[in-house]
Amino acid sequence: MGKQVTIDGIRAVITDPKLGQGGQGFAQKAKLYSNSAIELVIKSQAKAGKNDIRARKLVELNLASHSPYLAGPIATAEKSGQIVNIAPFAKGQDVESDRPRSFPELVELCHHITCQWAILEEQGIAHGDIAPSNVIVSDDGSASLIDFDNFASLEAKVPKATMAGQSMMTAPEIRLRSHPPTIESDRFAYAVLFNMILLRRHPSDGLAANPKELAKVMTTGQWPERVRPIQTGETPVEAMGDILPALFDAAFDIDPINRPTAQQWRHGFRQSLQTIYIHNCGQAFISGNKQTRCPFCQDYIQIPNQASSNETMIFKIRIPSLGTKYSFGLKDGQSIYLGRNNLGRGAASVSNRHLSVSRMNQKLYLRHLGQHPSALYRDGQWYNLKDVWLKPYEYQKDGVLIRLANLDIHLGL
Ligand SMILES: Nc1ncnc2c1ncn2[C@@H]1O[C@H](COP(=O)(O)OP(=O)(O)O)[C@@H](O)[C@H]1O
Ligand SMILES: [Mg+2]
Ligand SMILES: [Zn+2]
Predict the structure, then answer these.
(1) Considering only the top CATH level, what class is 282-412?
(2) 20 lines ligand 1 (CB under 6 A)
(3) Is the pLDDT assigned to residue 305 strictly greater than 60?
(4) Residue 250: enclosing H or E segment and its boundaries?
(5) Would you tell me how many other CB atoms lie within 10 Å of the CB of residue 157?
(6) What is the chain's mean pLDDT, rounded?
């Protein structure tokens, strides 16, 4: 049995003494003594300045009670010159160590982050150290925020945070005037984080080779992606639709007041999730209002809710278990491959190319390609699906339910 610690009446048993080592202190993994199913993190840091008052205030805010995805401390104590606090353990990997995810999943992940962030903004709290290392992604693609040590509060009594946050995330006013973190500087950092998650790169990549250049690129007031030459294989900004790029533009503004709020981003992501489009080149993207070409392969495309031609049929995929939906257009004679790359969350055992869907005359031809079996739901039961033709009346009215490995999807118009 590991070492026992009691922090303000909460008794815990250390299960991993070396969970994390940071600049400010160290973190240990533990479990609750009275219920070993509850995992915790114990963090110790040297007492300095007013960090004891700040730690108590943070516990008082009780962020963890507002959301299971806000892993703020629930108790704190002073032990031989150390401020020790205890917080819920967030299961998963940090954003940078997370497994590769499809584009739709990444949009969902960002949406989930905005939901947590919105709770903080509502309470007048800035996290103060938003960075990939402080966002833990669970296997199912939800995100927890950890490490609130550098938080800021609108409440005047709370002593100011002392750190600037991580350099690659820092807002211009913090770089230029060593300003303490604020709700507005968080808004900048979240935009950098979303850039890193959705485009899989830092906005300064390819534009800055050293800290001095980084500082310059991040303080121009312009979203650096706008001037960044795109390399082959990278996700173009055009894959993000209309709403998100507008939010990014505003988020990089020098004037903190112009940066979009958590709620604006949350609405932006929610709307974007409704317009994810899968092109038959296999890439998924958020469609814009005037989109005429796929941003990846440059083929002409027909997007739903735009003036429709009778040539392209717009199909919708719904994933009932997740409540997500995607759409794609198929011209007669065209095929699309459905698989892990474009279906997203929950598609872990689905192959990259699991099922091809082809349109021939008015019929649909489904062909199984994946490693684990596919099945089609018909007449009240599941049938193994190798290949099948669906007549218009079979898919046009109510659509069909298809199982790809362990993932059920609904395909219809
Ligand atoms: N609540 C938590 N849940 C899961 N892991 C945590 C938690 N708190 C800390 N860790 C782990 O310990 C590491 C360091 O803790 P953190 O609070 O981020 O300290 P630092 O100020 O050093 O960044 C984190 O990067 C993470 O791997
Ligand atoms: Mg950290
Ligand atoms: Zn394409």
Answers:
(1) mainly beta
(2) yes
(3) no
(4) helix 243-251
(5) 7
(6) 92
